[in-house]
């Protein structure tokens, strides 16, 4: 059995594994895709002390760093079920999709999240070539350009306000007949001169020239007319979905499906900790996920040294 079993190999899981292994305890990582969302990212310019890097490069560095320690890395393994320990000091079980079962004294859940996609032609083709999901990450890449934000909930309206300070003009497109963001955000949005809001708009296509985005089409849901907007960037803000479906009923989740953690990364189950985008910790970013992963590993170590000797 492991002392610490990390589920997920993104920035949070990698940090947790390194911090745990450095305590000299038996550490394992099971990940569906080592590297996580970082693999889908091109330019990273807010990884503090590294002014510019690229996702695949950072993902390789994460794996190399983990492998410098005695960590049992199980890549391409999806966890299916978590079974809490039967009693204090017992082993926690994690069942994998391949039928295997792993046991550990503590578990760190770091399965991350995925951005909900529009599912329209051009979106996949132009991802990272104008189609973006993270305004904190990619906003500055569109300085002085024209962008659209898809989604008029809190995250969409926050993104539009944020981007309006950087880009030339923002068009916010909401599917519903009205914005769903908090009134105070809507008021702020309406006060900005370079933001235009389109409601009852269904994005139907992302246009590009083969290498980058050049525009989008949307349908007015009241008239069924299709309109085209010329622009350079599209920020999709229709939801971040935590990869926690498999944990329902096992650990406490928020109404949005995020794993509820306290300030030490402890979940509702003794010995089970969580970190990164899968949790209730706000602001989903690489440096934050790494910090939280490190913290969860230290908390797991603290928990282990208090366990009754077997
Ligand atoms: P993730 O990176 O999502 O990793 C989750 C891990 O868990 C993966 O290994 C996954 O395969 C695994 N997993 C999921 N489910 C299971 C399961 N059931 N069993 C086993 N393993 C599982 N942040 C920045 O700070 N700067 C940026 O420039 C930036 N740009 C971004 C660009 C894009 C396109 C995207 C999508 C995100 C970007 N982010 C950026 C956000 C950043 O990538 C995330 O905040 C960060 O990766 C979260 O780390 P994490 O370890 O919590 O989760």
Residue stretches low in confidence (pLDDT < 50, at least 5 long) are none
Number of strands: 19
Report the C-alpha radius of gyration, rounded: 21 Å
CATH H-level name of the largest domain... which superfamily? FAD/NAD(P)-binding domain
The largest sheet is: 7 strands, mixed
- Top CATH class of the largest domain: Alpha Beta
State the distance separating the first and last CA atoms: 13 Å
Percent of sequence in beta strands: 25-35%
**Shape assignment:** elongated
The name of the CATH architecture of the largest domain is 3-Layer(bba) Sandwich
Number of helices: 6
- The figure for the number of domains is 2
Question: What is the SS-derived class?
Answer: alpha/beta
Provide the helix percentage: 10-25%
Would you list the SSEs in sequence order as H and E?
A: EHEEEHEEEEEEHEHEHEEEEEEEH
Ligand list: flavin-adenine dinucleotide
Chart the SSEs and their pairings.
Blueprint: E1 2-7, H1 11-21, E2 27-31, E3 43-44, E4 53-54, H2 55-67, E5 71-75, E6 79-83, E7 92-96, E8 101-109, E9 113-115, E10 131-132, H3 135-138, E11 146-150, H4 154-164, E12 169-173, H5 183-190, E13 195-198, E14 201-208, E15 213-220, E16 226-230, E17 233-236, E18 240-242, E19 272-274, H6 286-305
The structure holds flavin-adenine dinucleotide.
Flavin-adenine dinucleotide binds next to helix 1, strand 2, strand 9 and helix 6.
Describe the structure.
One of its GO terms (biological process) is response to reactive oxygen species. Disulfide bonds join 134-137. The chain is of the alpha/beta class. The protein has helices spanning 11-21, 55-67, 135-138, 154-164, 183-190, 286-305; strands at 2-7, 27-31, 43-44, 53-54, 71-75, 79-83, 92-96, 101-109, 113-115, 131-132, 146-150, 169-173, 195-198, 201-208, 213-220, 226-230, 233-236, 240-242, 272-274. Strands 1, 2, 5, 6, 7, 8 and 19 form a 7-stranded mixed sheet that branches. Strand 1 (2-7), helix 1 (11-21) and strand 2 form a beta-alpha-beta unit. Helix 1 packs parallel to helix 2 (55-67), helix 1 packs parallel to helix 6 (286-305) and helix 4 packs parallel to helix 5 (183-190). The longest helix has 20 residues, at 286-305. Bound molecules: flavin-adenine dinucleotide (FAD). Flavin-adenine dinucleotide binds at residues 7-13, 30-34, 36-38, 40-41, 44, 46, 78-79, 110-113, 115, 133-134, 137, 243, 246, 276-278, 284-287, 289.
């Amino acid at each position: 059995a492991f002392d610490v079993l990390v589920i997920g190999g993104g920035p949070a899981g990698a940090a947790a594994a390194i911090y745990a292994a450095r305590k000299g305890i038996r550490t394992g990582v099971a990940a569906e895709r080592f590297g996580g969302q970082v693999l889908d990212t091109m330019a990273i310019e807010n990884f503090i002390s590294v002014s510019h890097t690229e996702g695949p490069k950072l993902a390789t560095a994460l794996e190399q760093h983990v492998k410098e320690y005695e960590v049992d890395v199980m890549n391409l393994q999806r966890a299916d079920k978590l079974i809490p320990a039967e009693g204090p000091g017992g082993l926690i079980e994690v069942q994998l999709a391949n039928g295997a079962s792993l046991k550990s004294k503590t578990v760190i859940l770091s399965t991350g999240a995925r951005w909900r996609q529009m599912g329209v032609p051009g979106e996949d083709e132009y991802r990272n070539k104008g189609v973006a999901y993270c305004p904190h990450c990619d906003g500055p890449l569109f300085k002085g350009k024209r962008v659209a934000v898809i989604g008029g909930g809190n995250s969409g309206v926050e993104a539009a306000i944020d981007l309006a300070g950087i880009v030339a003009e923002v068009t916010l497109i909401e599917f519903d007949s009205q914005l769903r963001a908090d009134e105070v955000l809507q008021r702020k949005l309406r006060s900005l001169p370079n933001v235009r809001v389109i409601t009852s708009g269904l994005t139907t296509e992302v246009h590009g020239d083969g290498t980058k985005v050049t525009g989008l089409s949307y349908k007015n849901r009241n008239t069924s007319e299709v309109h085209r907007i010329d622009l350079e960037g599209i920020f999709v803000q229709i939801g971040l979905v935590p990869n926690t479906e498999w944990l329902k009923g096992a650990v406490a989740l928020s109404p949005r499906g995020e794993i509820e953690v306290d300030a030490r990364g402890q979940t509702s189950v003794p010995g089970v900790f969580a970190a990164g985008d899968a949790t209730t910790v706000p602001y989903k970013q690489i440096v934050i996920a790494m910090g939280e992963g490190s913290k969860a590993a230290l908390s797991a170590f603290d928990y282990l040294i208090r366990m009754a000797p077997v």
